[in-house]
Amino acid sequence: MTPSRSSAPTTAPIELKTLGHRIRHSRVSAGLTLDELGAAVGVAGSQLSLIENGKREPKLTLLQAIADATSTTVSDLISAEPPNRRAALEIALAKAQQSYSFLQLGIPPLKVTKGISDEALETVLGLHEEIQRRDREANATPEEARRANTELRLRMRDRNNYLPDIEKLAEQQLAAAGHSRGALTHRTVSIMAERLGFELIYVNDLPSSTRSITDLENGRIYLPPASIPGGHGLRSMALQAMAHRLLDHKPPTSYADFLQQRLEINYFAACCLIPQTAGVEFLQQAKKDRNLAVEDFRDAFGVTHEAASMRMTNLMTEHLDMRLHFLRVGYEGQIERVYVNDGLPVPEDVTGAVEGQILCRRFSARRAFERQNRTTEHYQYTDTPAGTFWCATQTGSHDRGEFSITVGVPFDDARFWRGRETQKRETSTCPDENCCRKPPQDVLERWSDKAWPSARVHTHIFSPLPRGRFPGVSESDVYEFLERHDG
To answer: Is 482 exposed, middle or buried (0-12, 13-18, 19+ CB in 10 A)?
Structure first.
């Protein structure tokens, strides 16, 4: 008796690999060879082979003929379920070998034959799943990155943002290069590189995803053009590149590892630009004179305002017994960098992450943007639920917009700082939303449900975090660059 005919549904696409396996299963169950089935349905056996391998989609009329010849139905042939465990393994492997994770490896796919056991297929499929899992892990989600960054920030707070081994290493390297006092010169940085077997080379064609490139084979450190105004960044970039070698860094295995390495190379560069011995001596004298100021510390060592501020967080708690906070805040109020060990209340999410949170409008770090004259620091006292804090804020700008750099201390320690006489005082009750996140009640009542702003969505919030051996770096660009400069 011929099974009743049924037509194929038109609402769902046919998965060709699964369809091919179901046709093969029906043919084999019916005891037919490719040529025998081909003769029964009027096509060559080679054409049926392409269909069974998922490389060609059959017409509905051919599907009906195959169903009739194998005593099955079209609905059964186009079912989304693989006909058996072996077919399910082969289909899963075929999909895995078409994934981007596998294709980027550049190795040929495994050709499945009858001689390959089900167990072998399961093993290979398991390896594919692990490759994709590792890719997903390396392509860290924002939540994973924020968690790793938060854990690192808390560890450094527990250590007073102080790494004694790197401090010692930096002073040893400086002494060996003949540096003793004053601002670190480019010449001394070059000597430090030479002692490690490297030559500093300034080029115009560094890949945009890199700050520097170290050619380990030829002993070269490539840096941006030496014409950068002030050149402060060039010294730091060269020192960071050297730090990777001195600290024996290996390619990072996780985003947390990448962040730790970045912190360590930045720390080494800071230790060289403002050596511990000279830096502590300068700060101790300024504290004694009750004249602590970021700008003096900055100018004494020829670094940027931000570098001097961050270096204070390394030295002042450990050597001056003074707790403090550092903030880098964007013009829209977003926290870009932060270090707090003095109790300053800063916003955080449920995971404890601070970066990206919006700082209270009453804080000095945001009030400083309102000043007409920004050539000098903005001094301010701020009363908060955690006490009163004194802050000094300097604004700046770069190609991505304006930002502010703030260093501050609890009220009792303000007596050691220049600018303590300021009469500017604000009150912040954040995280209470009535502090600065909600408009006055009359304004709220006036405009509630009568306005609809169109938000500006920053595309970076949809982007995956940098991935690869060196997150954010295009390795093809790096290797093409090295090929251009080789020899």
So the answer is: middle
